[in-house]
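Sequence and structure are kept together here, with a separate record for every protein. A complete record is shown below as an example:
=====
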Amino acid sequence: MAFDRWFNRNLNKIWGFVEDRAGIPKWALRPQPAFTFKPSYWTGAFVANAFLTQVVTGLLLLLYYQPSVNPTLTSCGQALGTLSVSPGAWCSTYYIIHTVPMGNLLLSTHLYGAYAMIFLAFVHFFRGFYLGVYKKPREFSWMVGTLLLLATLGMGFTGYLLPYTTLSYDATNVGIVLALRLPTLGPLTAPFLLGDGTAQGLLSRMFGLHVLVIPLAIGALLYAHIALFESHGIAPPATSDPLQRPRYTEADDKKHVPFWPHIFFYITKWALLYLGLLFGIAALWPWQLPTYVGNTAAPTPVIEPDWYFLWLFKLVDFYGVTPVIAVGATTALALFILFLPFLDRSPRRHPRDRPVLVIIGNSLIGFFLVMTVWGGLTPGVQILPASVAETLGPILATNLVVVPLFYLRYRASYRRRLLQRGGQYRLPGAYPVAARTVAPAPSASPAARAAEGVPRDG
């Protein structure tokens, strides 16, 4: 124990010296409450860490990658036993995998890192959706986060073509056709996506968007997201109390855990765990490069995108669903999510008080999961309305039955507990009930009321 006290005392002295000389308190992020030391509160930091990993691995890949569709006579063609009709983009990818030291690990890490970033972005989105973190005063933060999610999907779409395989080329063309079906926006974005209409123009545009335009947009949006987070602080725990303070004051921050070194080392711990898992997966399951565009000797693969867009491609397979309808429905969903803070104006944030939003969230998750699996199992197979109703109907029906039952049960028990305690402790606007004449003394302390069984809402 004496050694522990000595060690901590000297460590604090050393850290105090570093803080003073480096001016750390002036540029460190704001302190956070102790209850936030849980992974669920830092899903946004996990996404930011995944993005930084993608930037580093992507820059290393740029040292070897050639965004060209012209045939290249290099060692990759000789290794394949041909006189190389392979495009430069594909050949440089082959070179990275088979010639660059640890190149296969680097490329696989970048690919799986993209998958991880998209997955973490969805986790971060649905956590905020269920806990109502988009409510006042964080409306703009939610809108910026929604744009970040769309930009992340854009990074995945533009990067899919860069190895220039037959599968990625055909799937990208299908995706562009869907994007061009957007009313008004489609014709406007066509020149930016297609370039001069040639294969080289398409690859060059996807390359420029993937390595420059979208990363700069993500960087700017990420800065805005962090700035808004610094302004409002982390959202308090979800509660039924409509009068809960929506942000922490400066006095509250002084009682919280400082960013340096506690929060920084906490996030670093999870970042190192993420990197370890990512490198391990990339080493155990390295990515296999499919055949290149124009290889007539290879069998034609089934056209399908990566998993995060499978649901959209499968939606077009539904009978009667045209590309215009599919893109229009996706656009409407994106606009609903973007402006959700202004559509859901209720001050309550706890999921148990928002059954309609919970039904929507559960249905979206079920829809995406089923459509993704469906698209992977039967790509390009038309689906009749009866099969659609049989597969997707139970998801919506289950949510429409189960969620209201839980909501009504909770509301009834909440009202019953309020009546038992006299009703005067009810939260303003939360399931109001008629007050009874017998009530505990108003002077009772919070601890005494808690001991007596006064209902809490945390």
Summary: The CA atoms of residues 217 and 272 lie 26 Å apart. Residues 424-430, 433-458 have pLDDT under 50 and may be disordered. The first helix runs from residue 2 to 22. Residues 31-243+257-296 form a domain with the Cytochrome Bc1 Complex; Chain C fold (CATH 1.20.810.10).
